[in-house]
């Protein structure tokens, strides 16, 4: 059986009794970072076989772990912190195990995403987890396009060396779309001694961190758009299009927006409707730009 084990995101006291029993009884532990996991095991007095399983060795190590599972080994999958399978290659091992008929179970544990959401003070009745915002311009444009019309709280991860750029882009996006008051909560060092949550608008937080250099990995929680802001606007469309206003560049932005919706699980027909509303274009124009047949 494959045990997907949630581990502490900071404070080691947050580990569950069930997680401890699972790690103690496992035949093998597959870890994102063996050094990190060995420290965790040593803290609790466990000596277990540990092998690495991470983004850059998953293609070779995955089949090896699957073979051990087929032979009856009890394997525990852990990440550096939190729940495996969230923004890490644990998803592929879980998927492949299920495809091979191997039983999989989850040992729940701490989650930076949910912890930050609850701490943010923003609405929790519906939220979107967007993972890492991305580093290339295309993925970032798609993220900001979706964010502009997303009514639910958005939770994402961002690195300290990119947080100022992200806050600057959010400040511009919200100001030009007429919603500069949208609230943001930046969470860092969650569950640790120096846990910090800073709340405010994008502009306020940008000023704060320009004066006080950001440190540590951030979980970013962003308030959802109000109804009027989601369906309105030329200003929002100008922000999404960016500095390049060539027609072909604008159409590329629209295709990115549509692709982002599909990637997040939106059905094609609904995605086309959102595309029309978002950019104020006709049905025929939307189908032409996305290059899909009229019937989907």
The SS-based structural class is alpha/beta
The amount of beta strand, in percent, is 15-25%
- The general outline is globular
CATH superfamily label of the largest domain = Tetrapyrrole methylase, C-terminal domain
CATH architectural label of the largest domain: 2-Layer Sandwich
The structural domain count equals: 2
Question: Which fold name fills CATH's third level, the topology of the largest domain?
Answer: Methyltransferase, Cobalt-precorrin-4 Transmethylase, Domain 2
Describe this structure in words.
By secondary structure, the chain is an alpha/beta fold. The protein folds into two domains: 2-110, 3-Layer(aba) Sandwich (Cobalt-precorrin-4 Transmethylase, domain 1), CATH 3.40.1010.10; 113-242, Methyltransferase, Cobalt-precorrin-4 Transmethylase, Domain 2, CATH 3.30.950.10. Helices cover 46% and strands 16% of the residues. The protein has 13 helices and ten strands. It has a five-stranded parallel sheet, with helices on both faces. The protein has a five-stranded mixed sheet with strand order 6-7-10-8-9, sandwiched between helices. α11 (247-263) runs antiparallel to α12. The two termini are 41 Å apart. The model is unreliable at 230-247 (pLDDT under 50).
